Amino acid sequence: MELNQAILTAIIGSGTGALESFVAPWVKWGIEKRKIKLKNRAQTINNLKSILPNEVFDRKKTVNHDNYYAIRKHLSDKSIDALETNVIRLYGSVGDSPFNCPVNFILDDLSKLEIKWGLR
């Protein structure tokens, strides 16, 4: 009886060890994949933010940027309209802070996207 129990224990231990040797790399790969995904998302947003100006807004430069189309599906209709429509709009300001400015629309959307993606 004790021999059967020892054999059964050895088989169960070997099976568990073999299973662990397959599961551990898979879990590690999943963690690394998530880290890479977050890094790429952060880089995409930062690259797009870097072309948004502080003073003069260049709509074509923003739309033609490589990362724009990676982010476009996450932008609001207001941001897309401000960037892709060839209509000239006048935006006013209150004091030194502009409002209803295309750059602010985009920055608001990017900020929401950072929160949604867990980058903040």
Topology readout:
Elements: H1 2-51, H2 59-63, H3 68-71, H4 77-84, E1 93-94, E2 97-98, H5 102-116
Antiparallel strand pairs: 1-2
Question: What does this protein structure show overall?
Answer:
There is one protein chain. The protein has 120 residues and is mainly alpha-helical. The chain has one domain. The protein has five helices and two strands. The chain has helices spanning 2-51, 59-63, 68-71, 77-84, 102-116; strands spanning 93-94, 97-98. A two-stranded antiparallel ribbon has the order 1-2. Helix 4 crosses helix 5 (102-116). The longest helix is centred in the first third of the chain and has 50 residues, at 2-51. It is rod-shaped. The N and C termini lie far apart (60 Å). The model has no long low-confidence stretch (mean pLDDT 79).
Q: Could you estimate the helical fraction of the residues in percent? A: 55-70%
Rg, alpha carbons: 26 Å
- The rough form would be described as rod-shaped
Largest sheet: 2 strands, antiparallel
Beta-strand percentage range: under 5%
Flag low-confidence runs: none
Helix/strand order, N-terminal first: HHHHEEH
> Based on helices, strands and strand pairing, what is the structural class?
mainly alpha
Total DSSP helices: 5
Strand order of the largest sheet: 1-2
Count of domain modules: 1
Mean pLDDT: 79
Task: Count the beta strands.
Answer: 2
Distance between the termini: 60 Å
